[in-house]
Amino acid sequence: MRITANIFILMLLFIGSAAxxxxxxxxxxxxxxxxxxGDYETAFKxxxxxxxQGDVNAQVxxxxxxxxxxxxxxxxxxxxxxxxKAAQKGYSTAQFFVGWDYYHxxxxxxxxxxxxxxxxxxxxxxxxxxxxxxxxxxxxGLGVxxxxxxxxxxxxxxxxxxxxxxxxxxxxxxxxxxxVPEDNTKAAEWFHKAAVQGDADAExxxxxxxxxxxxxxxxxxxxxxxxxxxxxxxxxxxQENLGIAYDNGIGVPQDYVQxxxxxxxAAAQGxxxxxxxxxxxxxxxxGVPQDYMQxxxxxSKAxxxxxxxxQxxxxxxxxxxxxxxxxxxxAARLYREAAGQGLVIAQDxxxxxxxxxxxxxxxxxxxxxxxxxxxxxDNNGQNKAANNRSKxxxxxxxxxxxxxxxxxxxxxxxxxxKALDAYLESGTQLVPSSSNADIHPAQSTNISGEDYxxxxxxxxxxxxxxxxxxxxxxxxxxxxxxxxxxxxxWIKGSILVTQEYEKELWNSALLSYNNHQVIKTERLxxxxxxxxxxxxxxxxxxxxSPQYTETLANFNSGWTNSMEDAxxxxxxxxxxxxxxxxxxQVRQIDEQTIEQASSSINASITRLxxxxxxxxxxx
Length: 619
Prior knowledge:
mainly alpha; Serine Threonine Protein Phosphatase 5, Tetratricopeptide repeat; two-stranded antiparallel sheet; 30 helices; elongated; disordered C terminus
């Protein structure tokens, strides 16, 4: 039960209804003064005398001392015994405390029906906390059938007398339409009344309403003021909101360090949104040094509480191998959990995992259906699901497309995960037979070696240069042991290291974007020197031969261009400006673009390693 008064008994004695209570006796008054001075033993002696004489004020005050263990050993049962004596005489303050004991099971066995009875007794006499408590019981359906209309009736009675907890709950009723027509303006009015009295929850709710213009005009400055007041009282939601404000420069100057400070306060209290945001700060190096292990730790805490954003972010960490061992299976599991909660980007990524068989068995029908679900939710044209679906359809048979459409309808009818599980458990495997995913290129009669290699290795955006593949297959048409060894060396020495370079380049782009200055990771700096050397050493022809000389010259020319492209990319990321290609094509550089590029590269690297391990047993 939400009771904010710390020494509410003293308040009750003077503002509550006390039908049978007399004015404080001299001895009671002396006991009260002793209590205020911290002399609890004297207060206990004075109250004991008058309580034994039947004084209801003293009986309640004595019960309070037993409850708190002040001036006497704590004894909730004895406290209840004194409360019930006064309550049975009609004293509304005591009736509240008897109801409290039955509600919480302190001093008496928990009994919601009896709690309701005594709260009703007190509420009918105008006792404001009993009125509020009675409203809560109707709202929660405790000891009585749930009835929001009656809950609001008693909330209103208490709120009109100025009780801030009742004012806050009445605001909640109007905000969500519980027992009353939804009315954001009235919700804001009641939150304001409670916030004026320093109610932290009301300050937070009112801050959100000011930030997003819900029922009141937008006012970022007031929102920040309210968040700060609430946050300083320890309200985790307000601390999280204040962190977001600093993170994004909303109503305050952008300050990543301040954002992290507030995220930490809220995260320490178990707020899952703050834990996720703190993980993101560590992952991107905003306000703290970049630390993937810390990012994983905080994402994990939030994911364990069911936070969909954290589940997705943790999936990204497992997919890329940031702060944890790379594990596509774990990534797919986490994407699935987030997707099941309706997170669109997770649904999209889960589709990619099924399309390419990353962490899950490859299944075009499942991928198609997931892309369909995502595309239907793409109201702003930002996701790539429709494009992914179109590309995938070119590899599917008409029957598979039809199955994908049927699965989509089932997802819409009974839920995405339920339909997906039912389909997968049916044992139907609808991967196109022409791809022969487990057959070596030299054994396949349905697809050329080059096409097979491109299907297995090329990332969704074609990040591995096709010229390298062309050159590779021109040189290794037969599958002799010598040629296989050369092939493995070529991939490891040239293609894989180039892909690692591009991965680190996009990591550096993210750091540059977040810090508004060009920043290169240490590994990128190393790779800028290693890539040319590795490529040179891995060429399968003797140095000085025509093939060696021509290939090396082509590589060096391409590498020079790549370095120039990298320089322009990092500059665009640091300055938050679009990247303009030599052909005039404009590409917006932002976190989403960077993340998509990184995911594509990592998927490509995963498939390359899979190809080596599975088909040629490279080591």
